[in-house]
Structures are given as structure tokens and as C-alpha cells.
Amino acid sequence: MHLIPTQDEVVQLLRHTGAIRDGHFDYPNGLHATEYIQVQLAMRYYQHAKVLSVGLSRLLRANPEIRAIIPELSIVTPDTGGLPVAYGMCEALRAHQVYWADRKDEGSPMRFRQYLEQKPGEKVLLVDDILRSGRNLAELKRLVESTGAEVVGLAVIVYQPTPKTIDFGPLPFYYLAKLDALYYTDAGSCDLCKRGEPTEKVWI
Ligand SMILES: [Zn+2]
Question: How many angstroms does the Cα of residue 88 sit away from the middle of ligand 1?
């Protein structure tokens, strides 16, 4: 394994731990796909979690603008799935702090815990295990920026773009592996559905 794992090494690790699955998947947003990724299955193993988060932190350290602000950097994640990535990166980078958002109920807006407030001008790196639709990370970005903090970058282990992925514009974006599943925009256009292959519903 390289200090920054290659795309092939990441894919091999994810397959080996069952985090990449082949089949016919029905996503909550209506997309059908030939591949499903659940990075948490790989993050069960501490050594794997460490290899991935340290590798990702090395990509960030290579950016001189980010390297200069590491001591004051907050690493913030929208979901529990991002926590092992966030803590692993914070340890490797020696960044300032880690925190995360959550929701009162499914469908309610994202929020931070009581008394957790950003300082105006606080430098924030958004982190998650995977960027797929980008919906959670986009909501987190709005929430962080609404308090006057500054989002300086976005980092994920796996980037799996879909036809519905949100564009984050010029924000520096880091990932260890980019995976292109074959996506169909709905059941009507899905070749696997046409062949009558049974679907597997995925939650997220
Ligand atoms: Zn289908």
C-alpha cells in the first residue's frame, strides 16, 4: 500500500471488506445502479480506517494554502459515517478540532448540538466517507457558512458521482478514489429492470 493509496488499492480494500457490492440497486432518489458502496463496512477495521484517513490527509497537506491553516482547522462532518474519517484526519494533520452535525428527526434540518458555535472566520474542512448526491454536504456547507465560518475544502474517501450530484464549484475537493457506477435515472430507463433482474433497495 502506498502512503497515499492508489485508486486500485482503495478499490481492492473496499471490495475485500464488502464495502463495494455489485448487483441491481434501487436508490431512495429513484436512481438504479449496478454498484453500491457502503464505506462504513471498510471502516469497521481500525487499520483500514487509518490507512484511508491518513492517505486523504496527505492529499490535503500537499495544498500549501490548507497546510498553512492546519493548526486552526476545524474538521466537520455531516453524518456518523464521516466520523472515523474526520478523527483519523485530525490526528494525522494535528488539526484544531472535530465536530459533526445531526438531525432531530429524519427529514428535519441539519443542526449542531447546543452550545456548539463557529467563530466568525473559522476555517472549516468538510469531510465525509463518500460523496454521492452531495445533498448532506451541501446542507452542511450552508449551515457552516450561515454562522460566518469559512469552508476551505471538501474531502471524502470515495467520490461516486451520479447524474444528480451537486456541483460544489471552485471549492478544493479531495478524494482517494473515484468510482463510476452505471446509473440509470429511473426504473423505466434501467437495462437491468428490462432484463427482469430483481432489485435490492438501498437506504442511503
Ligand atoms: Zn433497475
Answer: 36
If phi over 0 gives left and psi between -120 and 50 gives alpha, with beta otherwise, what is residue 2?
beta
pTM for this model (two decimals): 0.92
CA of 137 to the centre of ligand 1 (A): 27
Residue 45, CB-side half-sphere exposure with 13 Å CA sphere: 13
CA of 74 to the centre of ligand 1 (A): 40
**In the block, residue with C-alpha cell 473559522:** 122
pLDDT at 162: 86
Question: Residues with Cβ within 5 Å of ion ligand 1?
Answer: 32, 190, 192-193
Could you count the other beta carbons within 10 Å of the beta carbon of residue 130?
24
Q: Tell me: the pLDDT tens digits for 29-40?
A: 899 999 999 999
